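Exercise 7. Predict the joint structure of the components listed below.
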Amino acid sequence: MNRPRTALLVALLLLVPLLVTLDLMSSAVQNSTTLSRLFIPLLLFSVVGLGVLLVLIVANLVQLVKQYRRREPGARLTARLVVIFAALALPPVLVVHHYSTDFLRHGIESWFDVQIDEAMEQVLELSRSSLNLQLRDQLRATERLLPSLPDAADVPTLAVRVAELRRQSGATELTLLNPDGIVIVSSNVNPVAVIPDVPPDAVLQQVKESGSYVGTMAYGEDRAPHVRAVAGDRIARRFILQGLFPASTHLQELGERVQDAYVRYRELAYLRESLMFSFSLTLLLVLLFSFFAALWTAFYSARRLVAPIRDIAEGTRLVAEGDFDTQLPEPRIQDEMASLVGSFNAMTRRLAQARAATEASRHELEAQREYLETVLGRLSSGVMTVDDQQRLRTANPAARQILRVDLDGYLGGPFAALGQASPQLGQFVETLAEPLRDTKAEWREEITLYGGEGRQALLCRVSPLPAVDGGHVLVFDDVTTLVKAQRDAAWGEVARRLAHEIKNPLTPIQLSAERLRRKFLKTMPGEDAGILDRATHTIVQQVEAMKEMVNAFSDYAKPSQLHRSPLNLDQLVADVMELYRAAPSAVSVNVALGDTGARVEVDPIRLRQVLHNLVKNALEAVADRPGGEVLVRTALIANDERPLAEIQVLDNGGGFDEANLGQIFEPYVTTKTRGTGLGLAIVKKIVEEHGGIIWAANRPEGGGCMTLRLPVCSIAPAAQSQPAQQPTPEERATHDRAVRTGSG
Amino acid sequence: MSAATGLRRGGWAGWLATLAIAWWGALALAAEFTISKAAARLHDGTYVVDATIGYQFSPAVLEALENGVPLTVELHLQVRREGAWVWEPDVVDSRLRSQIRFSPLLGTYQVTNVETGQHRSYASRDRAISALGEVKDLTVVRADALDPDETYRVEMRATLDIESLPLPLRPKAYLSPDWNLSSDWNRWRLRP
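Solution:
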């Protein structure tokens, strides 16, 4: 059962009995004998019922005040309705109370009047006088009988006389008593009545004191009204004669009626205030009942009226908060409110459906976006989008990696701002500015960026995005490694052709020159012989030089045949360096072995070649410097996968040219006047064939530093590795390139 | 709830409690009737009670009597076995009602036994009230109805019967100490 219905039931259970009680009270006040005895219980029940009603109303009021303060929906409307109901109910109640009380007072007062009072008194006095007259007559008659009695006579004589006197006087009973109140003789109209009615002691006492008594009494089985007249003898014999005379019934009845009316009147006059109080109390209770019932009805009606409005307000709040699943209970009565609630429910249903559809499409979009993001994230190509306002919108991880800049800080900002990150990116932005402004054409070009970290080749494509969003998508690939690999391959081909095309004619040239020398040197005159000697000598020497050069090319070009074996790196370095320490030189050659115990799986001949090459380069760098110093040191570098053995060759010479730092490992890049320009290229080739890396860097204190790292195959137990030092940017750049070269 | 509200509420409750106690105290103090010389005796195989009750009516009650309002007094008599359980019925539980009223015609006061209807008139009010208080040979219980091995407790109490008053007077009578007239319970033991 819902709450309003329960409230209604409770109210009816309270109000109906209360109404019945008040009705019964009203009847009781109107002198219904049966109900009159229930007046006080009815009064108590009414007061308690009204008290309960009052408590209910106060509770409702308190609740309403709380709701009003909390600004709950519907509280104001309820309060207004309650006030209106109270305002409508109170004036009539007050008016009815006022006029009813006034009417009652005047009505009751009008019953009692001075004249009526006097009339009632006089009527009573009249009755009393009339009765007294009768009584006095009977007393006098009795007194007159006394002298008729003989003074001294025996009882039978007295009995006869008393009987005679009774008959004469018309008394029902005549009794003669002695002064002590003892019956001497008695005569009764009824011969069977043998026991006479003896006057009570009080009567006898009064007779003794005043000589007579007269009063009324009920006598006989039928309790008929009689006059008791008792007279005392004034002479010596002191007889007491009592006569019981039948009273005048008519007079008696009249007297009693007058008395009853008088008593009733006096009682009413006395009770008028109490009567007024009772009437007023009943009236007050009835009016309070009406007022309380009106107030309660106000609360009940207001609640019923306001409930759907409150529901709608609450529902609207929930909808505003995003809860579209709100469905309001529909009122039972199909009125405008029910229609409003129905419309609200329909609205929330549609909103919920619309939200579900939006949510589904959002999920779909999200899924697509995630899919696209995953694909873009896995691409090796850098992808960036720029909107029509030239603002960077998106960039994938590959773009960050290729451009070596954290693009998150630039997202949403102007694309041109990216150029301030580094000179290299400046070139990138500058090159792309024009294609990105062009809204229609597709642009594709390979651009080369130069910077402190070397040359970087990017293959860029710019395509306009669909007109909805505008802007462009920029896709670029780092093709530096590819370009380098192509260049290396070209160099290899050149070397192979040189070996093939140049080396073959050299031997006949040399043999021919030697033959000319042998045949004509002895036969030629002195000066000519000298010329021939020098010329052939030069030819042979240059051919030798060319042979060396071609062999070097050949070495560089042909694939290596490695004969690997595990070697203690420190031991190997020590062996090689021993040769340099033994040789007398102005340059100080030092070795600092890290006692790494690292064993590397290498071709010892090739690695010795690498070491010789590096040390020789270092010696040449400090050859013409006083205090020149070359240091070779080894270390074990911890690595995530496997440790690396490191060899560093340091010198305190002039260092490397910063501009060529990234290209010193390429063929024919050399600062020396002599040499093939293939030394470091071959070194890098050998290192990479062993799975290692090599890079060059300038030392902060001056001089160059060549660092090569080789994977370790095993470590002697005593060895201790040191954590991998973070390479300097230059080192990292060269290293990256070395890795890329190796992988390409 | 603030402390002030609590005090206010406490104050109301205190006032109400004080008023209630004062009212009940006033009602209790209004015990104007006295029972003296109450005794039970065996007469002809029946226990009868003689008692003298002093009805000290308040001026308000006497005023009502003078104005024709009949007064009914109730003599409540109970006989109960000593040590009886709560649910055990009383051996005797009787109520004797007598009425006194003023007869303006003759200026007398009539005392009536409500049960029998017998009445007597008295010329003076004091005499009538005195006669009202004289209880003689009031039959209580037959001797054979009592267990000779038990002791019984006889209780007697006289009250002014408000319910017999005219209806308009009753609410006032219930609330006024002037009208709440009764004696204390007069108790004595009866051993058959």
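Discussion. The longest strand of chain A covers residues 454-464.
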